[in-house]
Amino acid sequence: MNIGILGSGVVGQNLGAVLASRGHDVVLGTRTPDALDAPRGHGGQSLGEWLQQVAKRGRVGTFRDAAAHGEVVLNATNGSGSLEALRQAGGAQLRGKILMDIANPLDFSKGMPPTLFICNDDSLGERIQAEFPEAKVVKTLNTTNTLVMGNPRQLAGGDHTVFLSGNDPAAKQQVTVFLKDWFGWQDIIDLGDITTARGTEMLLPIWLRLWSVLGTPMFNFKVVR
Amino acid sequence: MNIGILGSGVVGQNLGAVLASRGHDVVLGTRTPDALDAPRGHGGQSLGEWLQQVAKRGRVGTFRDAAAHGEVVLNATNGSGSLEALRQAGGAQLRGKILMDIANPLDFSKGMPPTLFICNDDSLGERIQAEFPEAKVVKTLNTTNTLVMGNPRQLAGGDHTVFLSGNDPAAKQQVTVFLKDWFGWQDIIDLGDITTARGTEMLLPIWLRLWSVLGTPMFNFKVVR
What we know:
- Two copies of one chain form a homodimer.
- In chain A, 38% of the residues lie in helices and 21% in strands.
- Chain A is built from ten helices and eleven strands.
- The first copy, chain A, has helices at 10-21, 47-54, 63-69, 79-89, 91-94, 124-131, 146-150, 169-183, 197-201, 204-214, and strands at residues 2-6, 25-29, 58-61, 72-75, 98-101, 106-107, 115-116, 136-140, 161-166, 187-192, 220-224.
- In chain A, the strands form two sheets. Chain A has an eight-stranded mixed beta sheet with strand order 3-2-1-4-5-8-9-10, sandwiched between helices. In chain A, strands 6-7 form a two-stranded antiparallel ribbon.
- In chain A, α1 (10-21) links the parallel β1 (2-6) and β2 (25-29).
- Chain A is globular.
- Chain A starts with a strand and ends with a strand.
- The interface between A and B is large, with 39 and 39 residues.
């Protein structure tokens, strides 16, 4: 499958590598596709190293290249840059496609731990859906560390939860299949329409505190019921 | 042990009944202690019925009566009424005591589902601690339904998580003992100081959506690690 990933930080790189290893054809989109030697955000390797890692299953391009390439598009940019990255990708390249939104509206400008720059009565997922109405936005995977996202079974055999928020039931059904087939997710809860992204984005404050207290990002929430 | 509970809705009633059944001496505080026949908030029975339920182990009084009685005080009021209830209880009645804050800053005034009237860079727990600096505020239990709060073992044998936030380490240690001994909690995570109450209060939006999707409030989060 042709998959476009927006964002070349550690989240985009890691999901891209997992998807490439599963035989998918990945284009990783970035603002700076020519800077192959530069270190990338949040501890990501350089894109030159990433290209070696994924061999011929992945390429690097602009946000527009990645979106045009993808039958499905993943938004793995920083939340603060997501809307601008999607504008550069272009609405025409997203039209009719599933856009899996993994970003969180973290605001690092006021010190640590970050606050959210949108929350409570709005969400980044909703803003993206509003600005790109022809994309089928499905908010998901934004409540776990990237290593858990891409390989949930390495934590407690996968016995923990991932959430979906989106307005298009068929798109959420398709994303459910992707999460199972691509990554091995087992417990997937559809929370409802895109406004429910408020709930998953607002998990970030406790997630960040847990990271600090537990001393590792290798944890996740399980909805016990 | 003498325990004061502020709030006569279903949360205060249920926790009071559990504590009374464990042999503690409970005073349930309410704005209207004489209205024994009136139905109480969130599906609570009347206080007359509650008094019958707890027999001689519980009494009903004002917020001030409850706080004065308690060696430890539980805030089980609606978040929107918490500060006013605590003012009626009086700082002198809270001085030096552990105040377990179970309330959430839910704003029902803008329709359903409720938003939070404080969040992101502040929390109800912090506001309470700031206004009552001589109380030892420990935010806890606010992330589960009252039936799970008071009897966690009835859900998955108790294999799920409750959180603590507060500035006083000894008070949190004491509350850890209370949660185990009173209710049977097993997995208790100390998130840090009272600012971490932002994280647990901000769990409410996803909690409310999950209630809707799962069709039952009998669930909880487990931090899988």
